[in-house]
C-alpha cells in the first residue's frame, strides 16, 4: 500500500506542453516494490521523495509524442535489523517513459497510447547486511556485518 502527496505544474511553450512535479510518498510494508519478510526486513516501509519532468508535443491534430522521467531518493523506516538486511541508506532511483498518443480512434473523446517505460530502477545507495558465516559450538548461527554499494547493472 502506498500513500503520498504530489504536485505538478504544467505549462505550454509553443505547441508543446511541459510538466514539472514533486512527490512525497510512503510505501507500507515494502521498499521500492520489494515486500518485507522475515529475512528481508525493510521495517514499516519506504519513504520516497522524487521529482519528475515530462513533455508532450503534437505532430498532427490527432497524433502526439510524449516523454517523462523521474528521479528520487528512498529510505527505509522502522527497520528492526532482525533479518539479513540491517539497513538501507539513501537509495537513488529513476524511471523513464516515452510514447505516442492517437486521439479520436473510436470516438471523439478517446485516446489510444503506446509507450515503452523503464520501471523504477536503483541508481545508487548502500545496504548493510548481516550474512551468516558459520555456527558456534552450541549451534548458534554466527553473522558478519557486510556493507555493499548499490549500482545498476544495466537499463
Task: Give a quick precis of the structure.
The chain is an all-beta fold and 155 residues long.
What overall form do the CA principal axes indicate?
Answer: elongated
Largest sheet: 7 strands, antiparallel
Radius of gyration: 21 Å
- Compressed to H and E, one letter per element, the order equals EEEEEEEEE
Secondary structure tally: strands: 9
- Binned, the helix content reads under 10%
Q: Quote the beta fraction.
A: over 45%
Note poorly predicted spans.
none
Q: For the largest sheet, list the strands in their spatial order.
A: 1-2-5-6-7-8-9
How many distinct folded domains? Answer: 1
Q: In angstroms, what separates the terminal alpha carbons?
A: 26 Å
What is the overall pLDDT average? 86
SS summary, helix count = 0
Q: Kindly name the structural category.
A: mainly beta
